[in-house]
C-alpha cells in the first residue's frame, strides 16, 4: 500500500429532530442523516475511523431514531465490497464513544482500538444527559460493570475489541494521519485529517460539526457536554481547514453526503 487511499463506508442512516441538529435554531421536524466510516489504507496498515452504529442495539435502545441499515452497510458488509474482512483492519480509531460511532467495533476483535483517554472515563460514568449516547458498550464490556444506571443488558457483551490505546492531545498517528482535539460534544472528541498525494487534505469533523450549515451558522447540535467548548471547536475546525488548505467532510450532512465518493470508489 505505497500511496494512501481513503474509502468512505456507507453505514446507513438515523433520524433526529431539527432542533437537535441545530440547537435552539431548528427548524423542527425529522432530519434523516447519514452515518459512515472512514477506511484509510496507509503504508503502515489499515485504519478505520469510526464504525457507525449497531442496528440491533439502536432498535433495542433508541428505536425512535428510526435506523435504516442493510447488511451491506454494516462494517463486515462494507469491507466485503473491497474484498476485505474485519480481520484486515489494524486499528480502529473512535472519534468518540457514543453508539453511532463505535457500534461497528465489535466485528473487529483483532484490531487495536484508539481513542482519547477521556472517552473511556466518560463511557464508564457519563453525565445523566449522555446516558443514551454512551449506551452501546460492546466495544469494552468491562465498562458496563462500572457504569451507573446501565442500559438494558446486551446479549453480545462478550464480543469486543480487547486491545486499547488511549491518547491525548493532537497527535500524528502515522505519516500524514492526524488526530486533532475538538472537545465539547464529548469530553475527548477527536477529528481526523488525512494528507494525500493527489488532492487537498481531508478533514473529517466527526460530531464536532454535523453539517456545513452548522459551521456556516456557528450552531452546535443539542447533544453536547460543554456548549461553549463545542463552539470553540467549530472555530478550531474552520481554522485548521484554512491552515492546511483541507477540505471539510461532515459527519451527518445528507446534502454533502450525496456528493461524496463512496466505496468502492476512493480518494488518493
The H/E string reads EHEEHHEHEHHEEEEEHHEH
Gyration radius, rounded: 17 Å
Write down how many β-strands occur, each being a DSSP E stretch of 2 or more residues: 11
Outline type: globular
* Fraction of residues in helix: 10-25%
Kindly, what is the distance between the CA atoms of the first and last residues, rounded to a whole number of angstroms?
12 Å
Major sheet description: 6 strands, mixed
The total count of helices amounts to: 9
The low-pLDDT segments are 151-159
Mean pLDDT: 92
**What share of the residues does DSSP label as strand, in percent?**
15-25%
Strand order of the largest sheet: 1-2-3-4-5-6
Structural class: alpha/beta
What keywords describe this structure?
globular, 268 residues, five-stranded mixed β-sheet, six-stranded mixed β-sheet, 9 helices, alpha/beta
Question: Explain this structure to me?
Answer:
The protein is α/β, with parallel strands linked by helices and 268 residues long. The protein is built from nine helices and eleven strands. The chain has helices at residues 18-21, 55-61, 75-80, 99-102, 117-124, 142-146, 212-217, 227-244, 254-259; strands spanning 5-17, 30-42, 45-49, 91-93, 112-116, 163-167, 171-174, 177-181, 190-194, 202-204, 247-249. The strands form two sheets. A six-stranded mixed beta sheet has the order 1-2-3-4-5-6. It has a five-stranded mixed beta sheet with strand order 7-8-9-10-11, covered by helices on one side. Strand 4, helix 4 and strand 5 (112-116) form a beta-alpha-beta unit. The termini are close together. Residues 151-159 have low confidence and may be disordered.
